[in-house]
Amino acid sequence: MSLPSNKEYQALVKQSSPSSPLVKDMLFAFLIGGAICAIGQVARSLLSNLDLSADDVGTLVSAIMIFLGVLLTSLGVYDMIAKYGGAGTLVPITGFANAVSSPAIEFHSEGIVTGICAKMFTIAGPVIVFATLSGTIYGIIYWLRSVL
């Protein structure tokens, strides 16, 4: 029995793979991502009424959204939302909170060090490293342009 050619294999994959409802997926991502951002905007509007600086309001909104992301992840609700919202749940800060907290919650039974701490950055670690590296490179370029 010979192996199928690359063309035959691609045809077989296309035939057996279900088609994705792209328009519906994009609409749900837009609506759910927008709803998450609207919740953040409501929190921002409410906190702006307090006697706080704009920086403090932004920090509190970020903390609230991270808390909500972790809370909904720990209750198993965020995964149900992500099932329908797809990328709409990844982009806001709640998606990052979900990416960090999911492995930590899943592996908590293995202990604090080998479970929670070791697994917490499995998904989000590369994002943090890339963001830090990109920020550092940008900072060096910005500094060099101002010096030269």
Structure notes:
With 148 residues, this protein is an all-alpha fold. It has a domain at 21-123. It has helices at 6-16, 22-48, 54-74, 77-85, 93-106, 112-119, 125-147. Helix 2 crosses helix 3 (54-74) and helix 5 (93-106) packs antiparallel against helix 6 (112-119). The protein is extended, with a radius of gyration of 21 Å. The model has no long low-confidence stretch (mean pLDDT 88).
Write down the Rg.
21 Å
Q: Can you write the helix and strand succession as a string?
A: HHHHHHH
Our measurement of the CA-to-CA distance between the termini, rounded to an integer number of angstroms, reads 67 Å
Assembly type of the shown chains? Answer: single chain
Alpha-beta classification: mainly alpha
Number of strands: 0
Low-pLDDT segments, ≥5 res: none
The total of helices stands at: 7
Give the helix level as a range of percent: over 70%
Gross geometry: extended
- Average pLDDT: 88
Strand content: under 5%
**Largest sheet descriptor:** none
